[in-house]
Amino acid sequence: MFSSSVNTFASDKISEAVPSYSTVTEVEDWGVCVTKLIVNLGEAKVVSQGSITKDTFKVDLVRYQENGVDQIQIHDPADVNWQTPNKMIPLPGGQRTVTNAYVSDKAGNPKVSSNLITLELKIVPEDNLSAAIYAKQPYVSAWSVNKYTITQQENINTSKGIVSGITITNSTGGVRKAVEDFKTGSFKNAEDNVTLTFADYTPIQDNKKNPLIIWYYLNTDGSMAVNTTIGGYDVDESGAWIN
């Protein structure tokens, strides 16, 4: 079992007073998924535990390629002409299903009151909206840029009045649990000028002898992005699991 990481990635410098969200990405047995959103309602909007439900906010998503500008491209399912099998269209956006919602701290731990809430999201292997990576070409995967719109659907009653009308699109980055616990690097063989990438994980020191485990995966990710390999990269161009 890997420990959780608290490092952030691609974090924009957004004031805590501005409503925003961050993502929690976790490794499942089929790959990596965005499992939670930590939502900052704004520093003046403190709400109490029990005042929100899974229906309080609607979560919409559009997934982009690693450059954050171009939408992920998929094969057109309506293209039945075998002579043009490579017709591509943008991956449609969609709505994520919220399975649980509660008041929390910035790590997603429940709190009695806070201006932060956690939205837990439904994940399944064949759902490309929950995926965190995509295949930008065969055997070459990359992290997608997932842009969320979080829209308040129901009023929130607080001791200072009603909180309503919140729409949040600002991202402050997120965490990639387990993946960020690995250190990555590369080695260039002088004899054949081939560069190999690697990742290593160091467990907590316990003053005992521990085994050295070496995992060599022959059919590895051609992108040489070993952190996507750690999370599992056997996906189609949309990020859906293909095994």
Give a short overview:
By secondary structure, the protein is mainly beta. The chain has one helix at 226-231; strands spanning 20-28, 31-40, 47-48, 57-64, 73-75, 88-90, 94-96, 98-104, 113-114, 116-121, 133-137, 140-143, 145-152, 156-158, 161-163, 167-168, 171-176, 183-189, 194-200.
Lateral strand order in the biggest sheet: 8-10-2-1-17
Which stretches of 5+ consecutive residues score pLDDT under 50? 1-13
Instruction: State the helix count.
Output: 1
- Integer-rounded radius of gyration: 20 Å
**CATH classification class:** Mainly Beta
CATH topology annotation: Immunoglobulin-like
Helix/strand-derived class?
A: mainly beta
> Into which percent range does the helicity of residues fall?
under 10%
What would your notes on this structure say?
- The protein has a single domain (20-231), classed as Immunoglobulin-like (Sandwich).
- The longest helix has 6 residues, at 226-231.
- It has one helix at 226-231, and strands at 20-28, 31-40, 47-48, 57-64, 73-75, 88-90, 94-96, 98-104, 113-114, 116-121, 133-137, 140-143, 145-152, 156-158, 161-163, 167-168, 171-176, 183-189, 194-200.
- It is globular and about 70 Å long.
- It has 243 residues and is mainly beta.
- The protein has 1 helix and 19 strands.
Task: Write a concise keyword list for the protein shown above.
Immunoglobulin-like; mainly beta; globular; 243 residues; 1 helix; 40% strand; disordered N terminus; 5-stranded mixed β-sheet; 4-stranded antiparallel β-sheet; 19 strands; single chain
